[in-house]
Amino acid sequence: MTTLRVGIAAALVGATVLLSGAAAVTPDDVPLAQQQEEQVEQEPEIDPIRNMEYWLDEYGVTDAWKVTQGEGTTIAVIDTGIGKGAEELNDAVVGGADFSGIGTPDGRTPVGDGDSNHGSWVGSLAAGRGTGAGKGMVGVAPKADLLSLSIGFGESATVPFIDQVAEAMVWAVDHGADVINLSFTTNTLDWDRSWDDAFLYAFEHDVVVVVAAGNRETGTEEVGAPATIPGVLTVGGVDRERKASNTASTQGISIGISAPSEELLGLSANGDLVIWEGTSGAAPLVSGIAALVRSAHPDLDAANVINRIIKTADPAGDREGRDPLYGYGLVNAAAAVAASVPVVSENPMGDLAEWIRLYRRADAEPTPRPTVTPVEIPPLPEAEPPTQAGSALLPSADSLRYGTVPLVALSLGTILVVLGVTAAARRIKSARLSRSPSRPIKE
């Protein structure tokens, strides 16, 4: 995320002069009739701030406003808090709370070290009101309401970050959020188990959750949680030429849609206007479009709101279908609101409940085991009493009965057989020697 404050006021003044034009002659030198004719033909003056919001025209937002501006919807911004200094935001914020332990109960006091304006920038892109007809910064859904939920990203917060997010998610759902915007990343693929319940709670209550993919410039080479949680709509970033941003975006298979992330405007907590970049700004643009879709199609559930956004996206990238840099393409607000899109029965970005069932097995209930009926075994007979102890060198009655006597008998029998065989052999040999030969033996 990069911000630029230098010379904005002077630039806007200069832009006003250029847009309105410098008169070469005085009105006194021009006939009255000609002056009246020129006033009729003169185009209305273009507000320089509004003119800098290029995404309004280039991404179909102004055309979508012909149908709706987000009436009847609520966007919860879970961030550093939306400040009270910008008049464009005061009428937009209808509620809030603090979850950092260091903010104010209404969530309107920015928290954090060095990035406390972040929540105000995000809120202004989503639902800024402008300062009048065609003047001042306006958000994508200027008639949607905002909830300001302040969380702390630094060490100053007294509540662990994981707990802050989980509690803020539940609060947002319970207080009527239709869309939840999360413009942060943890730079890790996995997430705490407490987020399983918090995000599942949002999905079960039909809330669209929009998450920033992250930025290479701040060290995010690949998307991390919460952008990796199944069911969220993860937003990548593109530059003014509608190409994937080298610094203000990242890559990953969980990216679902892309939106502008460079040369963005934002209102600080004190009302100052800044130029900044990052998918933290691309996400609220998509959150605003989600609010437009929900307003135009109040009968659609969250899954179909997300489906309309990705199915009506303008093609981008080299791959057919889902691209790791662009997701399904570049968001088109007018098409998302007005195009004919078939209804789906499942969230195209995934099913968190199914993921939990498959990958959180440690928390699953144990598999029931069949009950085994015990088998009774009759008791063994009592052992015979030991014989009277004798000398270890003398044989016992049992050893004589079962060992020595049978061994002696077997040995004697074997000896007698061997002696008998030997004697018989000698008699046969003697008989052969005493018999005369039956024929002569040649010498």
From TrEMBL:
Transmembrane intervals: 405-425
Residue ranges of every copy of the Peptidase S8/S53 domain listed in the record: 70-329
Sequence similarity: Belongs to the peptidase S8 family.
Any one Pfam family match given in the protein's UniProt record, by short name: Peptidase_S8
Annotated region described as Disordered, given as residue ranges: 367-392
Keywords carried by this UniProt record: Hydrolase, Membrane, Protease, Serine protease, Signal, Transmembrane, Transmembrane helix
Origin organism lineage: Bacteria, Bacillati, Actinomycetota, Actinomycetes, Micrococcales
Catalytic residues (positions): 79, 118, 280
Name the record gives this protein: S8 family serine peptidase
InterPro entries in UniProt: Peptidase_S8/S53_dom, Peptidase_S8/S53_dom_sf, Peptidase_S8_His-AS, Peptidase_S8_Ser-AS, Peptidase_S8_subtilisin-like, Peptidase_S8_subtilisin-rel
Database matches in SUPFAM superfamilies: Subtilisin-like
Cleavable signal peptide: 1-22
Cross-referenced Gene3D superfamilies: Peptidase S8/S53 domain
Composition-biased stretches (Pro residues): 367-384
